[in-house]
């Protein structure tokens, strides 16, 4: 589904037809991007990994702190948006890092593997380098900024792309001071997202109960 499809469907949902002028072409594109960023955040909050990316490197690729022992730093990916997980490879298994506290980083044990983000860098507290084969960073990239109506919208397969059309239709209704239309549009939009949230919550469920025969023979 393209940006143009979203705008066209939004106009239909807002019941303004194809000729009424509410937003300029630039403003429609801005509304789509605002809606996409908002839904992108909601998708990430559902513990979904559709957008997750991975960067891995050796500890040797990190820069030791010039003044403090056990502290190393590495630049975050240029498209970094939110952190998903940090893990260290030890004997063929990745183990999760924990976040270290700035005021308490000297209180952790001698085998601590920890991290903390600072601006565009990620800082590592590595008390014991022995056996640490590799560091893996799972992260969410910056949401796409759509620049043309021909751009295709990127969405997880469980989510109906027209959810964006509802968000843009709500913006249209607000611009027209059509308050009566906003609540019904919002409710339908919420139903679409609730369906997605349920699909994500159950996407790894491979142990569904078998269908039971409820008929009784007398």
- Count the DSSP helices: 4
Oligomeric assembly = single chain
Show unreliable segments. Answer: 210-218
Q: What sequence of helices (H) and strands (E) makes up the elements?
A: HHEEEEEEEEEHH
Structural class: alpha+beta
Shape: elongated
Mean pLDDT, nearest integer? 89
Number of strands: 9
Strand content: 15-25%
Q: Give the termini distance in whole angstroms.
A: 54 Å
Please list the strands of the largest sheet in the order they lie side by side.
Answer: 2-3-8-7-6
Amount of helix: 25-40%
What can be said about the biggest beta sheet? Answer: 5 strands, mixed
Radius of gyration: 24 Å
Which helices and strands occur, and which strands form pairs?
Layout: H1 3-13, H2 25-45, E1 53-57, E2 63-64, E3 71-75, E4 80-90, E5 93-96, E6 98-99, E7 113-118, E8 121-126, E9 134-141, H3 163-175, H4 179-201
Parallel strand pairs: 6-7
Antiparallel strand pairs: 1-9, 2-3, 3-8, 4-5, 4-9, 7-8
What does this structure look like?
The radius of gyration is 24 Å and the shape is elongated. A five-stranded mixed sheet has the order 2-3-8-7-6, with no helix packed on it. With about 220 residues, the protein is α+β, with helices and mostly antiparallel strands. A hairpin with a 6-residue loop joins strand 2 and strand 3. The chain is built from four helices and nine strands; from the N terminus they run ααβββββββββαα. The protein is about 30% helix and about 20% strand. The model is unreliable at about 210-218 (pLDDT under 50).
């Amino acid at each position: 589904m393209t940006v143009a499809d979203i705008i066209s469907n939004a106009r239909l949902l807002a019941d303004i037809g194809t000729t009424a002028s509410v937003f300029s072409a630039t403003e429609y594109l801005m509304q789509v991007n605002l809606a996409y960023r908002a839904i992108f955040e909601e998708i990430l909050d559902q513990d979904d990994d559709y957008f997750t990316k991975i960067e891995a490197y050796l500890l040797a690729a990190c820069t030791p702190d010039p003044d403090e022992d056990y502290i190393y730093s590495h630049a975050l990916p240029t498209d970094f948006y939110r952190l998903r997980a940090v893990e260290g490879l030890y004997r063929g298994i990745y183990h999760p890092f924990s976040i270290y506290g700035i005021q308490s980083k000297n209180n952790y044990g001698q085998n601590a593997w920890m991290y903390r983000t600072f601006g565009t860098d990620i800082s590592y507290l590595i008390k014991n380098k022995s056996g640490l084969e590799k560091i893996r960073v799972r992260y969410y990239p910056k949401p796409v900024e759509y620049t043309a109506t021909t751009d295709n919208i990127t969405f997880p397969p469980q989510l109906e792309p027209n959810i964006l059309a509802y968000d843009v239709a709500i913006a249209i209704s607000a611009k027209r001071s059509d308050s009566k239309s906003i609540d019904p549009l919002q409710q339908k939009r919420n139903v679409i997202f609730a369906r997605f949230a349920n699909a994500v919550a159950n996407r790894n469920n491979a142990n569904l109960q078998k269908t039971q025969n409820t008929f009784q023979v007398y």
